[in-house]
Known about the structure:
Elements: E1 8-17, E2 23-31, E3 36-40, H1 69-83, H2 91-102, H3 112-129, H4 134-139, E4 145-146, E5 148-155, E6 168-172, H5 179-199, H6 219-232, E7 242-246, E8 253-254, E9 257-260, E10 265-267, H7 269-282, E11 285-289, H8 297-307, E12 312-315, H9 323-332, E13 337-340, H10 348-360, E14 364-368, H11 378-386, E15 390-392, H12 399-415, E16 420-421
Parallel strand pairs: 4-16, 5-15, 7-11, 11-12, 12-13, 13-14, 14-15
Antiparallel strand pairs: 1-2, 2-3, 5-6, 6-7, 8-9, 9-10
Amino acid sequence: MKSTKATIKTIKAREILDSRGNPTIEVQVELSDSATGIAAVPSGASTGKHEAVELRDGDKCRYGGLGVCKAVSNVNDKIAPALADMAASEQAKIDQRLLELDGTADKSNLGANATLGVSLATVKAAANSANLPLYRYLGGTAARLLPVPMMNILNGGKHAADSTDFQEFMVVPAGTTSFSHALQMGAEIYQALKKVIKVKGLNSNVGDEGGFAPSLASNKQAVELILIAIDLAGYKAGDDCFIALDPAASSFYKKGKYVLLKEDATLTSNEMIDYYADLVSRYPIVSIEDGLDEDDWSGWVSLNSKLGKKIKLVGDDLYTTNLERLERGIDQKASNAILIKPNQVGTLSETLATVKRAQQVGWTTIISHRSGETEDTTIADLAVAVGSGLIKTGAPCRSERVAKYNRLLRIEEELGADARFAGREVLSI
């Protein structure tokens, strides 16, 4: 990070709405040199129980209890005075001060939504003070890798009612040489999928993350619809484009078993692993995220042992961007990749520490959005800053998703000849 002498002058939080029409928090930081930074915090629907606490008001007479006035007040009345006059470039010190102010392991005092809003708004202000784009401010001159988009084009689980047991079916357009062409490929496949769904007489409404949400008989049917769409769009599955899954298995883990209601199947951990192995043998699947429950550690170890040399096995609810849980995963060899969601942990510094540790041991990091998003594009810059090589930010539909893709297009243009696209290389094991 480039140093700036500017100090924090004011911090102000407000309540805004996210993409689902629910309240969330936005924070604005102004520095002594008049540079400002604004950050809006997303919210998840499918949340891991080990995530930091997202503070909600609980007043059923207002937004059904989902208001964030308490978090706003914590920023304006507690955090702002404590951070006044601190150097904006001292991100680690600022985030440490936030941790001390909260005083809990899970941010349940101030709320992770409050601390993250302040953390991100501050770094944005510091970047503006230094007259640098955020990806350059965070990543330095080495920040030039554009990520492969993992585009959730068919939604199920908690993201769409009466669709599939699995939560996300993604197309991964890695077989090209630029982000802009990858985005084009993904968008064309998305539009082709809409045609396929309509021809089959299925519902073409979209879920929380912009993907289509037809009522299907099985998870395999969802994969096969996407394969048809890839072909219809003029691309080759397994060469130009690949498939990634996010079953979000914790959502269908009941009393020690995996219950697939759509397929009338109740499976043990080993049977669930065999189910995935069969899918991987049939289809060009390159990644499975949250394939097992967030506390099924022995199952994860077995899953990684069986498929870890073939595909990416991504922990989301398993790790919740938490360094301590990541260390356990590394020690036990529970997976080979981690999803990174800043609001799961509550500060930028903690997020970066988790990314750094995962990359140190050769794991893949995937920067991710949440189902309840805003027009904030921080994760696009973050993906480039840390060279993650992969990003999840939904279908090429709905402006809160497309905003991230458009930001990456601008970064690619700004980098010019220096830009690199992660491509197929990031999928290798």
